[in-house]
Design a protein that fits this description.
The protein is of the alpha/beta class and about 525 residues long. The protein has helices at about 1-30, 35-45, 45-65, 65-90, 100-120, 125-135, 135-170, 185-195, 210-220, 240-250, 265, 270-275, 280-285, 295-300, 350-365, 370-380, 405-420, 440-455, 465-475, 490-500; strands at about 175-180, 200-205, 230, 250-255, 290-295, 310, 320-325, 330-335, 340-345, 390, 395-400, 425-430, 455-460, 480-485, 505-510.
Length: about 525
């Protein structure tokens, strides 16, 4: 009987170890079960065969009351899964983050498996439930996610209500909402830097752009002395932006772009446009200013309202020209109506210039002087992993654009790489994701641009890289200089063999583990 109980305990422990990977993927899929299942089916297929074999073996040993062999098998399974969990987290592109929500999921997992173990001891054949949940951990993960739903709704409702109260208490606070398919995070940091020359300014950190991310920022970062709150707003479905607007109550809006992103959930570009302009709809009701990027093709095509338009077109009130790039950054002339002035920045790429134009235009209209704008723009540093130049292996230069998933931005980043004349140019990329029916086309175009501008191309993802490889193969690019690998680790092994002080490498997009295949 002792070995029977120990068998159940170690099976349960093995299940807990295995859920580390499952919750990592659930977290990377924003806790949506439907999106998590899209990862499970292709990635869990091989693993499922082994789990069925282990489950059948454990069940057979328990049925025939061979408790010592069943205990040994359970210990082996536990050891294997513990080792796998540790190794997987160490090599993951984006490891599991132990948030309060994840901790609650683990508590539920432990309680559920413990309850099943107790039932397994006292009710005949009920131990099969332990075997099933311990082996089929995606099923265990989904069960715990569903069990926790009421708790998560209550917790979220409490935090959101508290955030709304905080916003309401800040009578003189100006909230600026920023959204767009691309460029919103970079623009947010640029705008915050410029506004900080005149106002006490707070912004949402990193990519905190969901209702709960914005709520967390409001509750932790807004202080009585805060004058401006710059709030990034993200969306994957129609209505998402409005959810954030109801919490943050933006007075002004800046819409950076509309493009083919998250089309798996949005379905159409028109839905993307409608969702991004939920911010404009909210601000219009309050009589605030709405700035929109006129260089964004979809904004230009669909715009049906009065906005303050910015970009590189001389017909816009806010525009830039005389743009040039160098190893140390970019220079350009900015125009606001009849006012013109030169700006220098360490940021690279046309899309970065456009982001600066939008942020500087809004800042100027809020009262920031031209001199303050010049100083702030000159002091800008690239946002982390967004065309960020830094020293790299063996004296080489890294252009880190790992957080860029913008089709146009990716093309521009590759063009920036191509501007480094006289150096060996390398691009490492897994391509672009969540572009629906346009995904092949966008990745094919990225492959073409890489072939034009790079000397060596390293594609990450044996299957995912196919569109880019197809594109490269249509050009006269030296095919011996194109490498297709399964992971970033393999990519780095190749790069380290060719890197030297005259090499520049571009990291273009860095997909989380649920997309690498």
């Amino acid at each position: 009987m002792v070995f029977f109980i120990l068998t159940l305990i170690f099976l349960a422990l093995s299940g807990i170890c295995s859920t580390v990977r499952q919750y990592q993927m659930l977290q990377q899929n924003s806790y949506y079960i439907s999106r998590y299942l899209k990862w499970v089916f292709p990635f869990y297929r091989t693993r499922l065969i082994f789990d069925i074999i282990f489950a059948a073996g454990a069940s057979a040993l328990l049925i025939f009351k061979l408790y010592i062999p069943s205990f040994i098998l359970a210990v082996i399974i536990f050891g294997f899964r513990l080792n796998t969990a540790i190794k997987t987290q160490k090599k993951s592109v984006k490891a599991l983050v132990m948030t309060a929500r994840v901790k609650r999921l683990f508590v539920t997992t432990v309680l559920l498996l413990s309850a099943l173990c107790v039932l397994g001891v006292f009710i005949k054949y009920s131990y099969f439930a332990v075997v099933v949940f311990a082996m089929a951990t995606p099923l265990l993960c989904i069960a715990c996610r569903i069990l926790n739903s009421p708790i998560e709704h209550l917790v979220n409702a409490y935090y959101i209500a508290d955030a709304k109260k905080i916003i309401k208490r800040h009578k003189n606070l100006k909230v600026i909402g920023i959204t767009g398919s691309y460029g919103k995070t970079t623009t947010k940091f640029i705008l915050t830097r410029i506004l900080s020359e005149k106002f006490n300014t707070v912004c949402t950190p990193h990519s905190f752009n969901t209702p709960m991310g914005v709520t967390r920022t409001i509750r932790s970062d807004l202080k009585p002395q805060t004058e401006v709150f710059v709030c990034e707003m993200g969306a994957k479905e129609v209505g998402n932006i409005n959810e954030v607007c109801v919490i943050a109550k933006p007075h002004h809006a800046l819409i950076t772009s509309v493009g083919p992103q998250h089309l798996e959930t949005f379905k159409t570009i028109e839905n993307v446009y409608k969702t991004k302009f939920e911010l404009a709809d909210f601000v219009d009701k309050n009589g605030g200013m709405v700035f929109a990027n006129g260089d964004s093709a979809e904004i230009s095509r669909q715009l049906d309202r009065d906005c303050k338009i910015y970009g590189t077109n001389k017909d816009f009130k806010y525009y830039a020209d005389n743009i040039s790039y160098g190893r140390f950054g970019s220079t350009f002339t900015m125009h606001i109506g009849d006012i013109s002035f030169d700006l220098n920045t360490k940021l690279l790429g046309l899309h970065s210039i456009i982001d600066i134009i939008g942020a500087a235009s809004l800042s100027y209209e809020l009262g920031v002087s031209v001199d303050d704008i010049k100083y702030a723009v000159a002091s800008l540093k690239p946002a982390e992993h967004r065309l960020e130049m830094k020293p790299f292996n063996k004296g080489s230069l890294l252009i880190d654009d790992a957080y860029n998933s913008n089709p146009e931005g990716c093309l521009e980043a590759v063009r920036v790489l191509g501007s480094f004349d006289g150096m060996k140019k390398v691009v490492v990329t897994p391509g672009l994701i969540e572009l629906g029916e346009k995904e092949y086309e966008c990745n094919f175009n990225l492959g073409l641009e890489a072939a034009k501008n790079a000397d060596i191309i390293i594609l990450v993802g044996l299957n995912r890289s196919k569109p880019m490889a197809d594109a490269v193969n249509t050009t006269d690019f030296n095919k011996e200089n194109m490498h297709i690998v399964a992971s970033f680790k393999e990519a780095m092994e190749i790069y380290n063999k060719i890197a030297d002080s005259n090499t520049v490498v571009l990291f273009e997009n860095d997909l989380p583990d649920n997309y690498l295949n």
